[in-house]
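pls design
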């Protein structure tokens, strides 16, 4: 759907902490058929690859998760030519063994949001795009390998449940999610990850665990954490994910053929 000059190969949803590390960054303003993205896109070259960065919440983190224009963000990335999308997010843990400071390379998600515009195909063209395996297996393996080599405790798979936000879960909701066996809770992976599939982009999520969700704390399985501890972990995760993302970018083969690149094949109904 999106079209235009190809000026980026890889996209990253993340703040200025990523692109501030790189020289020659240029700011690109894009308007989309779906409105404005969260911010300008920032394009730079790294290890011979063209990379576009977009702050998911805006550069000043002024957009709450339920108000993010996910369609515009993803369309803007595609319009630059992006085929590979790296999507880190801060997250909470739903299981005692998934601890603060750990990273989870999710392979599944569960959508518990509501009223988010979650498709590019509102008609007259109708596509039913499979999301059975929503994250690229090749990008996931690259991310796993990088995290291990950089000494980060990483869980090689996991299910992230996405809640609407901006409120956090009740204890009852949190216990429900934990009992279901899901590992991670966040607010931004849906519809972002699915929309990437509708644009035939390969996507990988890196969930950065900051704390335990309230159900685990309420049941006494883990000790409650203070806001100061959460901030400390968030800052540490933010520093570590910068290095991990840059190394992932370095290792992505630009000729990689992902199953995600072919999900529109046969997905159109009629016509």
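designed seq:
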């Amino acid at each position: 759907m999106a079209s235009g000059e190809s000026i980026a190969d890889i996209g990253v949803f993340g703040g200025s902490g990523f692109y501030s590390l790189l020289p020659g960054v240029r700011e690109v303003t894009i308007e989309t058929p779906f409105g404005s993205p969260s911010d300008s896109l920032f394009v730079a070259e790294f290890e011979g690859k063209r990379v576009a960065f977009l702050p998911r919440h805006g550069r000043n983190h002024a957009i709450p998760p339920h108000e993010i224009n996910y369609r515009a963000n993803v369309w803007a990335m595609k319009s630059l030519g992006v085929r590979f999308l790296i999507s880190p997010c801060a997250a909470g843990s739903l299981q005692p063994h998934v601890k603060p400071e750990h990273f989870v390379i999710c392979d599944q998600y569960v959508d518990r949001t509501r009223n988010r515009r979650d498709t590019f195909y509102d008609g007259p063209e109708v596509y039913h795009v499979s999301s059975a395996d929503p994250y690229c297996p090749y990008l996931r393996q690259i991310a796993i390998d990088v995290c291990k080599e950089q000494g980060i405790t990483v869980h090689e798979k996991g299910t992230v449940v996405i809640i609407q936000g901006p409120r956090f879960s009740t204890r009852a909701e949190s216990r429900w999610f934990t009992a279901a066996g899901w590992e991670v809770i966040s607010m931004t992976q849906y519809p972002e990850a699915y929309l990437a599939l509708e644009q035939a982009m390969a996507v990988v999520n890196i969930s950065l665990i900051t704390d335990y969700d309230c159900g685990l704390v309420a049941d006494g399985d883990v000790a409650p954490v203070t806001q100061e501890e959460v901030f400390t972990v968030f800052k540490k995760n933010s520093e570590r994910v910068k290095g991990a993302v840059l190394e992932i970018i370095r290792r992505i083969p630009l000729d990689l053929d992902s199953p995600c690149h072919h999900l529109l094949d046969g997905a159109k109904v009629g016509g």
